[in-house]
Design goal:
Blueprint (H helix, E strand, L loop, with lengths): L6 E6 L2 E6 L10 H16 L5 E6 L10 H4 L4 H7 L3 H4 L8 E5 L2 E3 L1 H7 L3 E5 L3 E3 L13 H9 L1 H10 L2 E3 H6 L5 E3 L4 H13 L3 H16 L2 H15 L3 H11 L10
Parallel strand pairs: 2-3, 3-4, 4-6, 5-7, 6-9
Antiparallel strand pairs: 1-2, 7-8
Helix pairs in contact: 6-7, 10-11
Amino acid sequence: MSKHEYIAVSERDGLGFIELNRPKVLNAINRPMVSEIVAAFEEFDRNENVNVIILSGKGRAFAAGADIDEMSADGAIDLELLNQFTEWDRLAWIKKPIIGAVQGFALGGGFELALCCDLLFAAEDASFGFPEVNLGVMPGAGGTQRLTKLIGKSRAMEWLLSGDRFTAQQALEWGVINRTIAPELLMEETEKFAKKLASKPPLSIRLIKESVHKAVDYSLYEGMQYERKNFYLLFASEDQKEGMKAFIEKRRPHFKGK
């Protein structure tokens, strides 16, 4: 893969790893870093040897938020012309499952990046929040939208208007994250679960992810039609034939992603 200045990228056992790598500034996210993150995701999405992508942060935090120094002098027209958040939109196009592993804290833009993951595992002492209101601004990379769709209007309002931090336990209870894990076991347990997903038929995983995302925005009827087409489509795959044949023959299937 191409070289990176702000992230560390590696690959093994069917998994792709993207690690935010600005530990001295608690992985504060600047614009070049976003470009590297998006490019790395897209490379893994095209890589036939990678089935699942894990996103994490190096050091004490997942990500402390956006790089305030970078944007403090910007004006509204500067930002409109820069149109920086269109790069973030490309994360929604990644077809393979993304698992986020959050240690320390995920704040502001770091929380928005975490919310782009399909599954979130967090250290038991992790915390989350949108402190933008305390700086006279607000989330701009999907925070108000993704959080509200995830946990509902009332709870999202509390997080967004107060700027308070919330614990991993609260995030778990409200459905923001999938599980809490002892900090020293976070990456080990995340990788173990990712390997489980990586062993499943890749086309099924791909179309399940796509269908679930449609369920968030579509009406039930439209979502059901979309699901149905994807169900039919999988019957054109070699993996469907292999999976059902293995079931009938009472043996383990060998999936190829075809």
